[in-house]
Please model this.
Amino acid sequence: MSEVYAKVAPSVVQIKTLRPDGTLGDAGSGVVIDDAGDILTALHVVQNARSLTVVFADGTESQAAIIAEVADSDIAALRPANTPAQLVPATLGSPSSIHIGDDAIVVGNPFALTRSLSTGVISGLDRSVQVPNQGRSLTGLIQFDAAVNPGSSGGPLVNRSGEVVGIVTGLVNPTGQPSFSGVGFAVTIDTAAGALGVPPD
Model:
């Protein structure tokens, strides 16, 4: 597992947002997917932000702009103004190779605890879930039970080979509290990368 973490952690960024009223928004996560430094994240992390800052694994900070949004999938693509000298894009995997019971590995920034690793298993495939307060649903999701909490959204779901197979979109909690109850969801990487027009490998 440590090898998987070592492979993917350098590609994970923390995303800080400034709300329109000037207050600090909730931090989220993202993953670098190409040599231009483009970052995939969850749209709800960056939506309606007045400004975005990304913090790379080496501590480099950069302003970033949203270059693509796919509301139907809760996916956004960001382009940073600057990238670190040592940019490490993640390796994208094939969601079609995922099976229920496979390892589910998530790296993100829950509660601003940067590049935290949590593990579990793939619990379900092709799930649909209602988006809170929006009257619409996300479909074709990967369900997993690795711990995700506020700040994890937008981070990568990776397989045992360290390949990104999904982008964490959120969690469903029957208690109504925004904390982890064992049910997390990710958008498949082919759907997410499609936001950028990136062909899957």
User: Anything to note?
Assistant: The chain has a mean pLDDT of 89. The two ends are 23 Å apart (CA to CA).
